[in-house]
Amino acid sequence: MFMAIPAGDSTGTAGFRHGDRNCLVSFTASAVRNPPLNDPIGANLDRIQVVKGWLDRRGELQEKVYDVVWSDKRTPGADGKLLAVGNTVEVPNASYSNSIGDPELITVWRGQDFDAGLRAFYHARVIEIPTPRWTAYDAK
CB of 6 within 8 A of CB of 14? Predict the structure, then answer.
């Protein structure tokens, strides 16, 4: 769900004026692990990210990645970055464990730096916990 609503307008009917910076962008993001065809349970999820791209006032493309929800009750560090979820991959066996990550993630995220005067796009990406690479399966 993608929705941009001017601040103070819960219905979204007021609309935006060019250059209006007094508004929020709100996204509902949810994901469930996907069972692959050869495994009864897919890999747990690490996090959901929202990627924002925009053309700045000079016409140059900018990009920012936001971690919007993550697994294992982790908290971002002092620098705002999220620590890695971990790694349970056993390369010689081409196996992994779902003892980290979560089977489902869901949140509502509000972008605080929305500017209706700038051309922008948003997309979400879901990151799973580490799993064996195809070379590990081939070697096994």
Answer: yes
DSSP state at residue 93: G
Paired tokens of 62: 């900018």
- Taking alpha carbons only, the member of 123, 124, 114 closest to residue 6 is 114
CB hemisphere CA count around 72 (13 angstroms): 18
What does each C-alpha distance from 89 to 17, 71, 72, 105, 125 come to in angstroms? 51, 17, 17, 22, 22
Task: Give the pLDDT score at 118.
Answer: 85
* CA-only gyration radius of the chain, Å: 19
- Residue-wise burial string across 6-34, b where 16 or more C-beta atoms lie within 10 A, e elsewhere: beeeeeeeeebeeebeebbbbbebebebe
pLDDT value at 107 more than 70: yes
Beta strand segments in the chain, E: 2-6, 23-32, 45-55, 61-70, 104-111, 120-128
Q: What is the pTM of this model?
A: 0.79
Joined together, the tokens standing for residue 48 give 């959901």
